[in-house]
Amino acid sequence: MDSFDSDISFFISGHPLWFLCHGMPEAGIKRLARCLAKTALENVPGGQIPPLSPGEVEQILARHGYYITETSFRNGTPRIFAWSSEEEKRIYINRGALEDFLASFPEETSGPSPDIGTIRGLALAHEWFHLFFHAIPKPDEWGSLKRPARIIAEETAARLYAAGLLQVPFSPMVLDLALRKRGGLGNE
Ligand SMILES: [Zn+2]
Questions:
Q1: Distance 40 CA to ligand 1 centre (A)
Q2: Which residues are CB-contacts of 76 (< 8 A; sequence separation ≥ 6)?
Q3: C-alpha Rg value of the chain to the nearest Å
Q4: How far is the CA of 39 from the centre of ligand 1 (A)?
Q5: C-alpha 159 – ligand 1 centre gap (Å)
Q6: Residue 49 C-alpha to ligand 1 middle, in angstroms?
Q7: How far apart are the CA of 47 and the centre of ligand 1, in A?
Q8: Which strand (E) or helix (H) includes residue 98?
């Protein structure tokens, strides 16, 4: 994942809440996010060892009682690929936005092109991370972090977790890099 280090920095320092992390070194958030993602990948709920296929991610979610709802809205920014609700035990996938992303993929990034199943799996794994984030052991420094830094660290870690869980050959920030150019958002 180290080859994508600059993409991770780009995501952290480009996050809308970054200006509230006064004086916090970007490297500190990156290190924390890597630590959280690593801990989560070593303790995947259900005990499976990565890589998991998108289908396996979906099966584990179903076993844990989560529902998946596909929706599709495309117009306007910010565009959101997925979001989740612990209350509803549900992950929402915005298929229209994912399809739009794939349709414009070659012009925005280099390397292998993802397919809809892989991108959908990344979005599901990302939301799954948020859903069990409260149960992930946190390093000591977590306690002294302010909310904006926590949010950015969690979002960064969710992307690293998703990419690590599926072991995709492209950047963990793939969706953000494409959207950033258009002024939109990625996963919630
Ligand atoms: Zn997220």
A1: 15
A2: none
A3: 16
A4: 17
A5: 7
A6: 22
A7: 22
A8: helix 95-103
CA of 151 to the centre of ligand 1 (A): 9
What is the residue-level pLDDT of the chain in tens, covering all 188 positions? 467 899 999 999 999 999 999 888 899 999 999 999 999 999 999 899 999 999 999 999 999 999 999 999 876 655 789 999 999 999 999 999 898 888 877 555 566 778 999 999 999 999 999 999 999 999 999 999 999 999 999 999 999 999 999 999 988 998 887 666 555 555 55
Q: How far is the CA of 157 from the centre of ligand 1 (A)?
A: 9
Q: What is the Cα–Cα distance from 146 to 148, expressed in whole angstroms?
A: 6
Phi first, then psi, for residue 68 (nearest 5°) are -120, 130
| Model pTM above 0.85 | yes
Q: Which residues surround ligand 1, an ion (CB under 5 A)?
A: 155, 158, 187
Burial of 125 (0-12, 13-18, 19+ CB in 10 A): buried
Give CA separation, 65 vs 56, 80, 121, 145, in Å.
14, 24, 17, 32
Alpha-carbon distance of 67 to 64, in angstroms, equals 9
Distance 123 CA to ligand 1 centre (A): 9
Q: What is the identity of the amino acid at 34?
A: R
